[in-house]
Write a structure and sequence with these properties.
There is one protein chain. By secondary structure, the protein is an alpha/beta fold. The protein has a 7-stranded mixed sheet, with helices on both faces. The termini are far apart. The protein contains 8 helices and 7 strands; from the N terminus they run ααβαβαααββαβαββ. It has a single domain (18-229), classed as 3-Layer(aba) Sandwich (Rossmann fold). The structure holds S-adenosylmethionine. S-adenosylmethionine is lined by residues 11-14, 16, 40-42, 44, 61-63, 131-132, 148-150.
Length: 235
């Protein structure tokens, strides 16, 4: 495996807002009008907020198969506490710009979790149970696929081959573009060590990649996303 330490325990089921997604992925107004897959979405409020603005976004995550909406929301709220305790005791690993302090983090994430909980109960079809590296969607189903805080973040337990298969699957279901953020394993002061090998394999598979800076930093050094594109599909 990667040699990265497991700093957090079980994979967190996190709750981020549309504002946080916009910053993490550098989303433009045109991006927000695209059909979007959030994979994995966890208990983010992103899909709820996009759809309430008239947009078209779908969430997928394996947790939706394991728990019902109320249980998923309860897990998300308890994971906000778990993450909040971690960042209070490792405050030097975080930049306090997007969030002013740990209380602000808890408040923002709790609002997103509540928005998620209301939306998944009202619109369960927007929340698809699925796990990488195999998604239940046809080829080229979404204009834009977003993937945050799963790939690279948990490099302590998922190897290079898993990352490659997962990204190829995200690309398969996208029509245009996949964005992955951040490039840093959790708790690590460096980018994913296998990134050059991964990019080589993607290039060999005909995928164009670019590493782009974004105007967001929470986990220190996590200021870049990987953008993967392939030739535009024609009908
Ligand atoms: C930290 S959350 C990320 C949620 C959101 N994208 C964000 O940035 O906050 C990580 C998610 O990965 C999900 N997960 C775990 N194993 C997975 C797999 N094999 N494929 C896809 N998602 C997985 C977990 O259920 C969890 O909700």
């Amino acid at each position: 495996m990667s040699g990265e330490p497991n700093v957090i325990g079980e994979i967190l089921v996190t709750s981020r807002s549309l504002a946080e997604y916009q910053a993490m992925f550098g989303l433009s107004d045109a991006d927000l009008r695209a059909s979007i897959l959030d994979c994995p979405a966890g208990a983010a409020g992103f899909v709820a907020e996009i759809n309430s603005r008239g947009g078209d976004a779908l969430a997928c995550d394996p947790v939706y198969a394991e728990r019902d909406p109320a249980e998923t929301t309860a897990l998300a709220l308890s994971d906000i506490d778990r993450a909040n305790q971690y960042l209070r005791s490792h405050a030097d690993q975080y930049a306090w710009t997007f969030f002013t302090d740990p209380d602000h983090h808890r408040q923002s994430r709790s609002e997103a979790a509540r928005r998620f909980g209301t939306d998944i109960a009202a619109h369960p079809a927007r929340y698809i149970a699925a796990a990488l590296p195999s998604l239940p969607f046809a080829d080229a189903s979404f204009d834009l696929v977003l993937s945050s805080h799963f790939l690279f973040s948990y490099a302590d337990r998922f190897d290079l081959n898993f990352h490659l298969r997962a990204i190829l699957e995200l690309i398969r279901v996208s029509r245009r573009e996949v964005r992955i953020f951040p490039l840093t394993p959790m708790g690590a002061p460096h980018t994913y060590r296998e990134l050059p090998a991964l990019i080589d394999s993607l290039t060999n598979a005909g995928i164009t990649t670019a590493i782009k800076d974004v105007d967001y930093e929470f986990q220190r050094f996590g200021t870049q996303m990987l953008v993967c594109t392939r030739e535009v599909m024609t009908d």
